[in-house]
Amino acid sequence: MGTGVVCVVAAWLLAGCAAPALPSASSASAASPIAGLRLLGSATLARTPDGVLQHFGGISGMDRDPASGDWLMLSDDKSELAPARFYTLRLRIGAQGIGAIEPLAVTLLRQPDGTAYPGLAQARAQPGAVVPDPEALRIDPLDGSLLYTSEGDRGLGLDPFVRRMDRDGRFVRELALPARLHLQRDPPRGPRHNLSLEGLAFTPDAQALWVAMEAPLIEDGPLPDAQHGALARFSLLGRDDALLTQVAYPVDAIPRTPTGGGRRADNGVSEILAIDRDRLLVVERCGYEVDTMVFRFAIRLYEAEVGGAQDVSAIDSLQQPGVRPLRKRLLLDLSTLSAQIGPIDNIEAAAWGPRLPNGHATLLLASDDNFSPSQRNQFIALEVIPSDTAAPTSSTFSVYP
Questions:
Q1: Is the pTM of this model over 0.85?
Q2: 58, 371 in Cβ contact below 8 A?
Q3: Of the candidates 123, 124, 214, which has an alpha carbon nearest to the alpha carbon of residue 160?
Q4: What stretches of 242-393 show up as alpha helix (H) in DSSP?
Q5: Mean pLDDT, range 222-240, rounded to an integer
Q6: N or C: which end of the chain has fewer CB within 10 A?
């Protein structure tokens, strides 16, 4: 377990150039409600031959129930190993790190007709069947219901979606998404395959919901490469699903060089959280191949400032000159923790945890192991060190829960 304060890099990004030729973050100082992140500890959780954890893995979304203290964790299994599902775990975080992890239950996600979702093979035999690709999960602070995303499937013509369900996994309704987030085949526009709705975050008052894309829309330009970043759209929806604003988030260029296999690498947004009314915490995840189908990961946590960003909802393509995206500041490069906890896995889930005895908030990160023998279900607990300008609030859904 680590106890040293992770150094905060005061690097604000204010990108005023056009995509796709976005530079990496440039430096300028600015005040922030987060002064730093301190490692509390880490843990891993393995699958078991039977029981609740029989098919545990692929954790891509996560949230903590403030009433019970239990954690809900969403698998991104496309109903292949088992029907689409989320897990309920008891996981304690304290000043000494992560305590024992107790699996409590597994709950299936239900379609509008009450049935479990089909897998790819079944869907191909049933035109019109919906195969989910679950990626993000949030508990609605106002009524306790759950929201989750699916990335859709461009090959099957399935749109991404955000659906609301009850605690038993039963369908409540599907949210109306902005038109730009729907697939278009001819000409190809909208979300790329497997690079779609990756993050959800309620605003602190729970009156609006941020929905984050992992990567740029097809019309918004190329994916990040080793030299250039890209712009991904974040949409803010009201409780009536109305689009309140849409902003561009500047994704970094690929920060690592692949060394083996097909030498594949990518970088994109894997999760978001609301820090306060004006700031988001954004997880950027880079995967790079080091051997055939063996990947390593570079994870960075950014604070992104909403104020000053341009509303891009009416902009047809973010490749046009002069787009003004969110500014961002690097909070933590998780590679700095490797000496203490070993290799960092494929972090795709993040949620605010309980307060520590000193009053500081905690942050839990979880990895998607892709059900791969070369990966693991990893949990990393961090203490949130507030800056002098950030006073704790009474909100139950903010960086100070």
A1: yes
A2: yes
A3: 214
A4: 338-341
A5: 98
A6: N
